[in-house]
Amino acid sequence: MGVTIVPNQLRTSAGVLLAGWAVLGGAVLGLSLLQRGTTPDPVGWQALGVVYRTIAVQALLPELGFTVASWLALAWLWRTAERSRLGLGLGLAGVAALWFPFVGERYFTVWESTGPGTYAATWALVAGGAAAAAWVSRLAFPALEPGFSAAPGSRDIVER
Q1: Nearest of 130, 151, 150 to residue 10 by alpha carbon
Q2: Contacts of 125 (CB under 8 A, 6+ apart)
Q3: What confidence category does residue 3 fall into, taking pLDDT thresholds of 50, 70 and 90?
């Protein structure tokens, strides 16, 4: 079961993450359109596409991959965090937050922080987006519900 569920978890979470990224990008573009009153020219559309794809490939998807893989290993060892929605959400957020410095340094090569404020905002957006996508996908699809990756319980009368 676990071998086929893991790729499904990643695919589902990636779909949720990219859909959320498209909604956020669309909202930002919509606000810009309201302020300017015009749509971007063809070069502007191309540039936006490059920016969106680059952020998705260099930051969001690596962050999601590391978060889900780490969470699945952690949940196998620490069953109680995996069994509740709150534990799942907080655990995924914590794991994603821990991965951002590595992903930001090694994968997100087009980004450079200009100070603590921009670093914190980028950290929150990237790690928060990855954690939220993994959490939403786990809650939205029954095969991925909380507890699916936790180690099976012991059959012993007394826990060791």
Answers
A1: 130
A2: none
A3: very low
Strands (DSSP E) along the chain, which ranges?
none
Most confident of 3-7, 109-113, 152-156: 109-113
Distance from chain centroid for Cα 61: 7
Packing angle of the helix pair 61-77, 85-106 (nearest 10 deg): 130
Query: Could you count the other beta carbons within 10 Å of the beta carbon of residue 13?
Result: 27
Residues 11-48 have pLDDT tens digits of 888 888 988 888 888 888 888 888 888 888 889 889 98
Residues 83-117: pLDDT tens digits? Answer: 778 888 898 999 999 999 999 999 999 888 899 99
* CA–CA gap between residue 103 and residue 126 (Å, rounded): 10
Contacting residues for 56 by C-beta, under 8 A, at least 6 apart: 18, 21
Q: Is 70 exposed, middle or buried (0-12, 13-18, 19+ CB in 10 A)?
A: middle
Burial class (CB in 10 A: 0-12, 13-18, 19+), 120: exposed
Q: What is the residue whose two structure tokens read 């937050």? A: 97
Ramachandran region, residue 151 (left: φ > 0; alpha: ψ -120 to 50; beta: rest): beta
Q: By C-alpha distance, which of 7, 1, 45 is closest to 26?
A: 45
